[in-house]
Amino acid sequence: MQPILEIRGLTKTYKGGFTALRGVDLSINKGEIFALLGPNGAGKTTLIGAVCGLVRPTSGTIHAFGEDMGKHWRRLRARVGLVPQELATDMFEPVLRSVNHSRGLFGLAPNPALIEEILRALSLWEKRDAQIRTLSGGMKRRVLIAKALAHEPELLFLDEPTAGVDVELRRDMWKQIALLRERGTTVILTTHYIEEAEEMADRVGVIRGGEILMVDEKAAMMERLGRTEALITLASPLTELPEALSAYPVSLIEDGRVLCYRGGGGEGSSSGTAEVAELTKALTRAGIDYTAIDIHESSLEDIFVNLLEGPEMQGAVA
């Protein structure tokens, strides 16, 4: 199946010499939720801006819906929605008029039923006559989403959609994004909240310094790069590791009172939890008593932090 968005060799160098994107290759599948993770200044917003026509790339190509956006930008842009990171909008306009105006900007006929459906889904219908400036930060961000959905985009970019939004509103937005996917909309989101990617995304990409470090299905990434950590509290401290434990990835911490295991995960590796079970048997055979075991499996956040901190991952693209 042809990807709905295909980016090849995309670079962006600004006049001052700063390079925001360095040969980015990225393919997005139709109907998926894709999360792009990266620290501030990684190039996330520049990448979105290049696709949405807000940034002119220095080199590279962008194909959307099977066509070259450089040649057919105006027509293809009408099929793309954008919820920007900044809360810049027409603050003195009523909500309903502002959302209707966004639809009209793309040359579409009025559709009151659709706009009402969007506003109700985002809990904005009761606020339809309120000026945007009177709304809370979370409700203003919902207005941005409504404006982006007004022209029925097939591909939707959400740049930090829940920044500054409380937990309850964030959960509501997650539900709305899931509903969009059910309707066939392809969603690409950038976020600082790792739990958003863990909750919603089908695939995850990690970007740093304008380069894509890795792209993979969320489950596959967690299986391949995840790790198991087990802290085994010993009944009596050890001064050194016995020979019986030499085959295991363990170390002594807290003055020999705790045995720390870090293993599992990675391609071809055995299950970390299974290896911990074998380790406890080895302890018993060696006559080493323990009083407690605390096992922790890597989260997507752990993997993300390790990728950003590991320079050896800079060129790894799946």
UniProtKB/TrEMBL annotation:
<dbReference type="InterPro" id="IPR003439">
    <property type="entry name" value="ABC_transporter-like_ATP-bd"/>
</dbReference>
<dbReference type="GO" id="GO:0016887">
    <property type="term" value="F:ATP hydrolysis activity"/>
</dbReference>
<dbReference type="InterPro" id="IPR003593">
    <property type="entry name" value="AAA+_ATPase"/>
</dbReference>
<keyword id="KW-0067">ATP-binding</keyword>
<protein>
    <submittedName>
        <fullName>Multidrug ABC transporter ATP-binding protein</fullName>
    </submittedName>
</protein>
<dbReference type="InterPro" id="IPR050763">
    <property type="entry name" value="ABC_transporter_ATP-binding"/>
</dbReference>
<dbReference type="InterPro" id="IPR027417">
    <property type="entry name" value="P-loop_NTPase"/>
</dbReference>
<dbReference type="Pfam" id="PF00005">
    <property type="entry name" value="ABC_tran"/>
</dbReference>
<dbReference type="GO" id="GO:0005524">
    <property type="term" value="F:ATP binding"/>
</dbReference>
<dbReference type="InterPro" id="IPR017871">
    <property type="entry name" value="ABC_transporter-like_CS"/>
</dbReference>
<keyword id="KW-0547">Nucleotide-binding</keyword>
<keyword id="KW-0813">Transport</keyword>
<feature type="domain" description="ABC transporter">
    <location>
        <begin position="5"/>
        <end position="234"/>
    </location>
</feature>
